[in-house]
Amino acid sequence: MAEVNLNKNVPFEENETLEPINGNGNREAAEQSKILQNDEDDDKDIAKKKKKKSKSKKKKAPQEQTNPQSMQAQTDPPSIPVVDLFPSGEFLEGEIQQYKDDNLWRSTSEEKRELERVEKPMYNSVRRAAEVHRQVRKYIKGILRPGMLMTDLCETLENTVRKLISENGLEAGIAFPTGCSLNWVAAHWTPNTGDKTVLQYDDVMKLDFGTHVDGCIVDCAFTVAFNPMFDPLLEASREATNMGIKESGIDVRLCDVGAAIQEVMESYEVEINGKVYQVKSIRNLNGHSIGRYQIHAGKSVPIVKGGEQTKMEEGEFFAIETFASTGKGYVREDLECSHYMKNFEVGHIPLRMPRAKQLLATINKNFSTLAFCRRYLDRLGETKYLMALKNLCDAGIVQPYPPLCDVKGSYVSQFEHTILLRPTCKEVISRGDDY
């Protein structure tokens, strides 16, 4: 879920126009442990040196190898909760990346390893949420087709999350509404009840959804485009996100991550209907730190140079997300609002409207400080709540998050991963075989 900067002094030319430029322009592998993969590589090296076969040392087939973390088979469509697929109760860790030179010592520090042992239950919770995310997105990618009603798409995705995560109040469930923003809409759009928007062949859709266990949130997104002419645009944001992940680390300045992201992003061009456009980073959209039950925890990760000099710290979660645009590279709030979230810092505020009090009780019970949308309220049986919702927003208890849009006619792509800055290494929690 994107963090937008609409109030700070972001450089912007009001007279900018959308101008073309000249030019031409399965998670299955993770089921085997890294130890076994390394052993397999070692076996191959030994075999090459001896230049002969040894029947006594013949390697077992993958299905015969023992792996305490391996998952059982999921159904199609997925319906088995992930806790039932991992009998050991231990979930797969994400991609491990080592820190850079100044922090290499952390990987062998016994003190830092002990800190990780203490945090193991929390790590396991967020890995469970990540496993749900991977399985759900794999399924959704397999059924996505032009002509799908966006409401059906979102409800299918969300219902699958509810099954696989074993939804249980605020202990496990959906972290925020499914964003399925199209084309020049960069983020925070999901259909309200009754919306008849249909996914088209030439649409560029950002599919941004979140899962959580015990408030540990996985925020992860990818872009879908059926028309291959958009491939360079998708590649720009995917590679820029990977660069942001690579550059992130303990004691790294946020501004340095943003500069690295922009350099990769703006090295791309995309040809759309015969015109070539320079890809731009959307300069007032950011990645962000994540806290328990708090999707935006206070730190912003820019995707252009010149951002904050605040440093990343040990133990922090970050959503590294980038937005590639063929437009102005600047978003404004527009269209009908669907996303809302209770203010994390809000204290007791007296309310006069009884209906607003009732609605707040529903929000506290079902979402607390996690984001929600109108469809979720409808699903809970709430009716005629718009005036009460407005009252909560006006009182500052609930914050509305309208869709964020670049110039009409442009196209925006997004990729996002959640990372954890562990004491000994960097873990890309949401990494999968797909991206």
UniProtKB/TrEMBL annotation:
Residues 47-60 have a biased composition (Basic residues). Substrate binds at residues 188, 296. InterPro entries: Creatinase/aminopeptidase-like, Met_Aminopeptidase_Type2, Pept_M24, Pept_M24_MAP, Pept_M24A_MAP2, Pept_M24A_MAP2_BS, WH-like_DNA-bd_sf, WH_DNA-bd_sf. Residues 126-329 form the Peptidase M24 domain. A divalent metal cation 1 binds at residues 208, 219, 416. Its EC number is 3.4.11.18. Binds 2 divalent metal cations per subunit. Has a high-affinity and a low affinity metal-binding site. The true nature of the physiological cofactor is under debate. The enzyme is active with cobalt, zinc, manganese or divalent iron ions. Most likely, methionine aminopeptidases function as mononuclear Fe(2+)-metalloproteases under physiological conditions, and the catalytically relevant metal-binding site has been assigned to the histidine-containing high-affinity site. Residues 1-84 are annotated as: Disordered. Its cofactor is Fe(2+); Co(2+); Zn(2+); Mn(2+). PROSITE patterns: MAP_2. GO terms for molecular function: aminopeptidase activity; initiator methionyl aminopeptidase activity; metal ion binding; metalloaminopeptidase activity; metalloexopeptidase activity. A divalent metal cation 2 binds at residues 219, 288, 321, 416. Gene3D superfamilies: Creatinase/methionine aminopeptidase superfamily, Winged helix-like DNA-binding domain superfamily/Winged helix DNA-binding domain. It is found in: Cytoplasm. PANTHER family: METHIONINE AMINOPEPTIDASE 2 (PTHR45777). Belongs to the peptidase M24A family. Methionine aminopeptidase eukaryotic type 2 subfamily. Cotranslationally removes the N-terminal methionine from nascent proteins. The N-terminal methionine is often cleaved when the second residue in the primary sequence is small and uncharged (Met-Ala-, Cys, Gly, Pro, Ser, Thr, or Val). Protects eukaryotic initiation factor EIF2S1 from translation-inhibiting phosphorylation by inhibitory kinases such as EIF2AK2/PKR and EIF2AK1/HCR. Plays a critical role in the regulation of protein synthesis. This is Methionine aminopeptidase 2.
